[in-house]
Amino acid sequence: MKRVLVVDDDRASCDLLREIFVSQDWQVETAVTPDEALQKAHANKFDLVVSDVNLEAEKSGLDLLLAVEDRIHFSMLLSPSVIGVEGLIDCPQDDM
């Protein structure tokens, strides 16, 4: 089963993305801070990390992804002010 780490300082966004990924048979972990995400990324192997760009913290989503890029297969930044849920694109599981 593919594993994804979803990072967003908005718990509702994390929960929504969890539902979407679980419906596609992904195992999902969530984090609401970059530090929590870094701990999970260093303790576990993820195929994908999806992060909000503008986290309410010292580190941005980009900082987070750069810090874990050697531990993940693929990453994606989301900017909720630019795209909504309808902006999410299905990623064929065969490509992962």
Question: Your description of this structure?
Answer:
This protein has a single domain, classed as Rossmann fold, CATH 3.40.50.2300. The chain starts with a strand and ends in an 18-residue tail after the last strand. It is globular, with a radius of gyration of 12 Å. It has helices at residues 11-23, 34-43, 61-68, and strands at 3-7, 27-31, 46-52, 72-78. Helix 2 (34-43) runs parallel beside helix 3 (61-68). Helix content is 32%, strand content 25%. Mean pLDDT is 80; it is low at 81-96. With 96 residues, the chain is α/β, with parallel strands linked by helices.
List the topology elements.
Layout: E1 3-7, H1 11-23, E2 27-31, H2 34-43, E3 46-52, H3 61-68, E4 72-78
Parallel strand pairs: 1-2, 1-3, 3-4
Helix pairs in contact: 2-3
CATH superfamily: Response regulator
Helix content: 25-40%
Please work out how many helical segments DSSP would assign: 3
CATH topology: Rossmann fold
Largest sheet, in brief, is: 4 strands, parallel
Spatial strand order of the main sheet: 2-1-3-4
Structural class: alpha/beta
Tally of strands: 4
How many separate structural domains? 1
**H/E element sequence:** EHEHEHE
Q: CA-to-CA gap between the ends?
A: 11 Å
Q: Uncertain segments of ≥5 residues (pLDDT<50)? A: 81-96
The value of Rg in angstroms is 12 Å
Described by the principal axes of the CA atoms, the overall outline is globular
Bin the strand percentage: 25-35%
| CATH class category | Alpha Beta
